[in-house]
Amino acid sequence: MEILVDMHCHSVASGHAYSTIQEMAREASKKGMEMIAITDHGVGMEGAPHIWHFGNIKTVPEEIDGVKILKGVEANIMDMNGSIDMPEEYLEKLDWVIASFHDVCVSPGTVEQHTHAWIKAIENPYVDAIGHSGNPVFCYDFDKVLKAVKAHNKLVEINNHSFTARVGSEVNCKIIARKCKELGVKIVVNSDAHISFDVGKFDKVYKLLKEIDFPEELIINTSAQKLLNHLELRKRSRGL
Ligand SMILES: [Zn+2]
Ligand SMILES: [Zn+2]
Question: Which of 22, 77, 143, 172 is 20 to 30 A distant from 178 in Cα terms?
Fold first, then answer.
């Protein structure tokens, strides 16, 4: 199995990442990838881009070096009601929205609070996927949240970067992936690259998915066409 799309990449605009969009695309092209999504942090994080970054992102070509470029955001969940830090009029113009918890944006609460916040974020019509939810700092009720993801035809991200950046994620990611397999919840495998060299780096997730014999049909970013079909169907279902 090969995954030819990376839907979580940060450019220099995130403030703590080190490559331009052009450099990210060039690396993706070198690795034979079909598509990447640029997902700089939402405006609620220290050092994140100004909102105008998202307003003007249409300037970026739809394809660079033969790689399709989707324009997205990794929005920050800012409270236990699942509010995110991006205005709707910007979200509706983006191709792809991940919602994630970061402890620099919101202090961790209880399992019940995280569960509630995730469900609220999933109910947000603009949110496509929940980001690096294996982070043990923001533990939640896996069954409740994954069922909500399925009910709303959203995606659960399995994030390669989490295995080193967010200690304890590996164990949780395995539980989450197993439950996704059981419940038939679709996933998206992402690098969360903060430098071009890491684009398309899924080694740790590949290993995990192999270990649990995860079904390929539930991995939505094996090809650009599969991912785009999913987005198209979901957007049509919400009348956009
Ligand atoms: Zn993140
Ligand atoms: Zn990220």
Answer: 77
